[in-house]
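User: Predict structure, ligand zinc ion.
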Amino acid sequence: MNIKAIGGSNDVSDVFDLYDLRVKVVASEKPMVCDHQVGEYFDVIGEMIVFPEGGRNSFTLYPLAAILPLLPAKQRITNKNDWMTTDAVVACPDPHCGGRFHIARIATRSFSHAETTVVPLPGDSDETNESVLTDAHSTTD
Ligand SMILES: [Zn+2]
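Assistant: Predicted complex:
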């Protein structure tokens, strides 16, 4: 049987939750030398980076490169003792710049596994997932 309850609380649900994030420019003790403006921000909702309406719709490249690897981890529920849970400020990678970027978890949002990937959940009667993992494993040996 391949019936899935979306949003239900039983064992066949394929729903998972992610945090919506807000990445906002904050000041530090040093002046900012890049084109950062205190208070400007973007949101991360699922796989989308969303700029605010009426706000600036651009963001400096080098800080974005530093922030991006952290965003998928910050979107996920983490252990309360994990530094990923408590630490929220990223520094601009320019050593002369005082720009800081605060990553806030602003809400949770539910997603359906089936609507976000074609890879089946474990236990679904499909061999695609296993064969992909086997192929990936064999290339690293
Ligand atoms: Zn900077």
